[in-house]
């Protein structure tokens, strides 16, 4: 019987078929005017090759992987969806976690919701399945519906009462604790399932019933079980399954490089899954193969910008394609491969040019490279090779995401290359990672289809547990399952790790945790959930052998490799038992394999090629390529620091809200680069490092500080700083800053609205060595915290240790870089940034603006040219007898952020931005207060108004909400803090975004289901405050409304702005609405004003309405 596996991609459909001992491989276009369906056409071509009539009865099975669902999502071609949700949460999937994607964007772009209509249902369930508002009757809809009722993962009865023509219920799609993630996934399922079902029906009509589909998790399912949520990675999952057939005793990295992107994955005995991803801007939380995608493919465009060589993310596509396609396309990776001789033009099909019958046009590629070569003083080939090096670096960084960030060393893996462009870059990428062995499967051009042929039929079920291990009856939960997985985490953390349920599963969890984070926590272990998998194993597919014969090159050609032209042998037909030494090209039907001078390729009996790499002396990189490489490397390292901090911290502030930042500094303490975290932190941390340098005799230790007069922002923000020495010389610093939930002081949460002195706000930690000679000074930090009345000292200690772990991880990664080149980059990026700022302000004429805080304090601003560019805040109010004073370090941070936004250049936030800027400010003023001044409100309110006043003066954009809307509540048992987004200001050519954080902050808001499980509060409503944005030709963004009902007596503290003075409009645009803080008690509403501290009683409701953004231009202006 015939067995057929098909991978239908966006461009090509690949076929791997087995009949008796014969293997048939095909690659055809997915769309063609000559046939209706590529799957049916593929099978017809298989029968033609066998010399037989098309006969479905001769087929044992057909297995399909498809990108139909993914393409519908990316192209916006899904079905109409009605979103049915708990009353008060109709805007939840538009607000999501309130963060903006691009930290420095003024025109904040949010993904368009996939649903057409929202219906709110008056029902409510609380954690534990407690029904607050019963849904009495079933409700029927004659439409396609996605249902999200809060806490339905635990109590699904209300969702079951919703009936519809086509329905996706969140507890059935994927029962996890997170309303936003579960809701988005459910809407995606509803959006795609009708498209999938229509596609499946068409396939079944043409090809019969015996069809299986590849799911995102690498298993197969029957046609009736294939739907939207499990289809997203149906196509690429096959490639990961194929790694299973290749695996022997060494971990593998899958490297699938195509025309527009590269997918990388890892295999070490079992398919690694992930349970969260973001596709086309939409969250999906569902089991899927752990593939990381980077926008680097053969069609990725090449740019010379700001002294750097950049690759992507834009792609030239297949039409017009790269320049060498002869269709007036764009300079791309393929052009670089062509001009360096890595493509054998003579043997490339003549399908290019406007006639579609011409060869590749290398001269077009050369002309464009020549323009860049003239600018940098190098040859065309040197420039092209440098671009290829940057592309290889980008792909190597993608591999680090699935190895280094999980505690694995990429050099201990075999790189398995597949996809049309992978074999050309495999050697270069492997050398970046220290990998010594590359494997190229004989079917590498259609490896996903081969993997689909070898996949098992599976069905899985996930059950939320959230109990300590001793409380769980595993045998009962796993009854009948073939595979048993447990998701474990430490209590009060969020990072659940998947382990197989077996005798030593706890030890496996601890080993995985320690490998990822470098330490274990002294805390109870919680079973978050379990997954049971039912498996029907597939037979192994026999492989066809190739002939043995001596191979000879059919020609030689010149290739530009490692800085020089080299003669390379070119091979076409391959035979078993041969060894090929580089430099060489091996031409295959669907790809070209490039071997450099240190490569040796061996061909086995099946036609697989193993490449062993010897060390070679590599040519020094061009300056323009090095800049790009080090910018990416350092950003990756800072981001990894943040990942470790988030996953190992205990407090909700760090692990849930992500109120932290990580950065890298030169030996003088100048900021060099950062992860895209919180702007209010990033620009001010260098002041802490410089303060420590000035105060201490620096040694190999880790320092801690939160004092505002040492560069801190406010007391809850603790900064941990670590220097790195080599051979006794200080080389660089790393630092992490995290907002601690409570640091002592007069109120829980350490953010009193009416503090008058710094001591009222909590513990002041003047810098000292928190780790010295390898010893953590726990007793000293405990004493400091205790003396200030800190309420959650264990959590503080745990979070400080997490910050130390993040710093150490950063240093370990930085140590692997070339120190000399890294220090060169430190200086170069500052110089480039300073030059950009100087150019931006070269024609500056004096501008000025004034803003008023709600308490009447004045912020004055002028910008003008003197010897430097002057940002002059003199004349602002004197120091306040209150807490909205702004430490000078935070003022500096706001200035740095504002300039970076106005520059609109893709450079890291770094000290060079302020090199030619002089900030003038009065001593003992609101913007440069004395040592004893209260500052907790300045960091979270005044900082935003600094940005507003600068943008007002330069007429950049209308005012944002101008606030972070700080809400703190707690009692003797707990403390909780969050900030709430609002409206962004409109600007030239764009409306302001609604329901987002702007400017100096970008923290997440805790998901409603998570906050209700952890704290005695009910979120009654979380919605967009309609029509609160200012009117104009371009409208300001709307604010948010969040309603809390307290389930215990608590103390509440509010620190908010823009409750008196509205966010300004610009150039005739209207103001945004002011914010409001209200208390509902016993049916009566009270205005709480912008700052308040009060005792809330059980049953009280707190209503926060955040400001809208200002409008831009008069409504009818042209």
TrEMBL record:
Domain Hydantoinase A/oxoprolinase: 182-459
Gene Ontology cellular component terms for the protein in this record: cytosol
InterPro entries: ACX-like_C, Hydant_A_N, Hydantoinase_A, Hydantoinase_B, Oxoprolinase-like
Coiled-coil ranges (or none): none
Domain spans labelled Hydantoinase B/oxoprolinase: 625-1112
GO molecular function: 5-oxoprolinase (ATP-hydrolyzing) activity
Domain Acetophenone carboxylase-like C-terminal: start-end pairs: 554-606
GO biological process, one term: glutathione metabolic process
One Pfam entry name: Hydant_A_C
Domain Hydantoinase/oxoprolinase N-terminal positions: 3-163
Family according to the record: Belongs to the oxoprolinase family.
PANTHER family tied to this protein: 5-OXOPROLINASE (PTHR11365:SF2), 5-OXOPROLINASE RELATED (PTHR11365)
Name used for this protein in its record: 5-oxoprolinase
